[in-house]
Write a structure and sequence with these properties.
With 168 residues, this protein is of the alpha/beta class. The protein has five helices and five strands; from the N terminus they run E-H-E-H-E-H-H-H-E-E. The strands form two sheets. A three-stranded parallel sheet has the order 1-2-3, with helices on one face. Strands 4-5 form a two-stranded antiparallel sheet.
Length: 168
Amino acid sequence: QALLDRPGRQAVSVVPPHHTHLAVTPLAAARGIHALCEKPLALSVEDARRMIDAAARTKAILAVGHVLRFAPPVAEVYRMARSGELGRVVSFYVLRMSTASAFLALSWGREKRSLGGLVRTLNCHEIDVLRWIAGEITHVRAEMARLMVEEIDYEDVAWMTFTFENGA
């Protein structure tokens, strides 16, 4: 609050633990301060809606840090897909090999109620990129499990298949 009350503040980057985003972003919005929020925006649709509504009331911009869009290889695939250079893209295959063990060092990284789970925390990048390139998702089939890291209470493996509005 003290940071937000400093004169001349126009924008902030919201990077505290995931489960606190709902407490922080409306404070910025109430002051008309724009916020770039680390992903995931919120741990539930209801919390995300509250944050979006708080920003809308004061016309503050609330954005989510989906930074993978700006990685040169991803931006190039987007350009190629949009230009038609790739022809009609009918399928994508994405494999992410990472582990939840990186979150074990965080006091709040072991529990789904505070982290949100691996899909919300890491795989949201791939989902965002696919939506950016192919459009909105119309159907999801997913299976998730905790198979590798015993110290957590959320999934550390996910298999997901999406159908997009363009038919891909």
